[in-house]
Amino acid sequence: MTIRKEFDLGLQELHNLIVELGGRVEQALSEAMIALQEVDVVKAKAIIRQDPELNNLEDRITEIGSKLIATQQPVAKDLRIILSAFKIASDLERMGDLATDIAKVVVRLEGQELIKPLIDLPRMAEIAQTMTYESIQAFIHENVDLAYKVGRDDDSVDALYSQIIRELFSLMMENPTTISQSVLLSFVGRYIERIADHATNIGESVVYLVTGKRPDLNV
Fold it and tell me: How many helices (H) and strands (E) does the chain have?
């Protein structure tokens, strides 16, 4: 096997693992929100148990990328691909942690009824989930335009988060018995907002991969 072919096979494995990790993160976020809406503690605990698997995927990406650097000594764009993969894997692993944090909120809500129908939180999560998918597609296809779209979509998540915080604050002022659950729901909003930020970071990594310059899409 030629050196280049071996390197290309390693890069393909990196791509495949990042797609798998991204898909697992999307699924974790989706299932965590379903668990929240249904206060389904069994589903939430299943999500929590799966988190180490995401950590293992990140470790595998780091292992493969490090081996490629050590054995192939890549330069220029080849090196940027591997460095971007490291950063993207780190962002995805943290996104998985945040989805797990949402599941942990569900566990804390065991036995409670939700104080209000959840509308904006699921909408936030839906946008963040789409951002996650599109950020990975941007990486796979080296699509800078899609990377910038992910950054723009983050504004919608931020706007919804601000609206949710205002509504929860008003609810707490009107009815102090809702304070405990309102605080937990505000945490969920924060976790989703952070997931969207990490998806935006992935967009920045894509731009760096293609252009060699890292923009700030979180503005």
Answer: 6, 0
